[in-house]
Amino acid sequence: MATNVPAPIPTITEATFALEVLKSKWPIAVEFMSYGCTHCRTLEPVLREVAETLAGAVELLRVNVAVDQDLASRYAIRATPTIVMFANGREVGRAEGPPPCAVSLRVAITRPFAA
């Protein structure tokens, strides 16, 4: 029986960050997260749902801060989850500890791109 579970958010690393994020022509939202973070696990299904609704408009990716600590440090990630929005290789906004509500999360992710 098929289920309607949204696809997982692709994980990127420091090795692929420049190509996937900084050189992208698309708006990108990067979730800096940790698999040990309770709030990250709570946000996971909502983030997947939002990623599906924003497909074709904003690409969602994730960085595991436990693995890529230097990348997290470079972007001054102080808490997880933190979602950083990028346009044309530059940070245009961020949401720290966004609420696990699809509508609020969608607004937090798309607002920086509307400016």
Q: CATH topology, which one? A: Glutaredoxin
* Class of secondary structure makeup: alpha+beta
In CATH, what is the class? Alpha Beta
Proportion of residues in extended strands: 15-25%
General shape = globular
Widest sheet: strand order?
A: 2-1-3-4
DSSP helical segment count: 4
Q: What is the percent of helical residues?
A: 25-40%
Low-confidence stretches: none
What is the CATH homology-level superfamily?
Answer: Glutaredoxin
The overall average pLDDT, rounded, is 92
Identify the CATH architecture.
3-Layer(aba) Sandwich
Instruction: List the secondary-structure elements in sequence, H or E.
Output: HEHEHEEH
**What is the alpha-carbon Rg in Å?**
13 Å
Question: How many structural domains does the protein architecture include?
Answer: 1
**Counted beta strands:** 4
Largest sheet, if any? 4 strands, mixed
